[in-house]
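Hey,

Quick one before I head out. I ran the complex with pyridoxal-5'-phosphate overnight. Inputs first:
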Amino acid sequence: MSVQLSDEDRARFGDDPRALFTENLREIQARIDAACARAGRDRSGVRLLPISKTVPAHILRFAFDAGIRTFGENKIQEAQQKHEALRDLPVSFAIVGHLQTNKAKYLARFASEFHALDSHRLANELNRRLEREERDLDVYVQVNTSREATKFGLAPEETLEFISELGAYPRLKLRGLMTLAIFSDDTERVRACFQRLRSLRDEALRINPNAQGLSMGMSGDFELAIEEGATIVRVGTSIFGRRPGSDAHYWPGLIPER
Ligand SMILES: *Cc1c(COP(=O)(O)O)cnc(C)c1O
């Protein structure tokens, strides 16, 4: 591996990022196994989606060596730069953060999944751009299960109607629902967000049988999410380490309590 590590890289990822990521992934997989066993769920029903925001593209080569093939990114511009930088590798990108409609054209060019669909305007523009690119996109509808004013996503009571109208956008392949639970140390409040998403998903399945997915759970709460039915857990910090600086850029207006 010919990637040169800077001092900054070493300070953040150590002298052997590949070994670090391999070990972290092994640990997370073991925790996912255990959570599935506790919940009586089949392990094949849960996918780990590593979230690599803030991790530089050259470092993602070590993550590739550690076995990661899909990178979850919150910001379209950052994702696009990494996509360009890693063109020689067979990797794909999942966009998990809010997207402004005027950025839909960028997403349509390269992303394989989008976990934050939350408006008709965006759905329409994505569909139009995907049509032009002759591409399809797997989408998850984001629901604001905690009803916090600072969070993106549809209100729970708007979600089913929205889903019933997605047939107007044939390039968008609905795969399920996504949420960010409340940032709280109160486990029951976090769990309530996951339960809300699951019961909405159960109703959504009557409208569209492809909506089985539940994209929920992050480093701090993925085991709880698995207990409540998560099919995709989005884990960043526990794989790549703590992000430098504040997450305010990724979660505007959101000051985590924990
Ligand atoms: C950053 C991010 C994650 C991962 O968060 P961690 O706490 O670092 O695991 C998950 N989902 C979204 C939408 C994110 O932006």
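The beta strands are 47-50, 70-73, 92-95, 113-117, 137-142, 172-178, 213-215, 232-235.

Talk tomorrow,
K.
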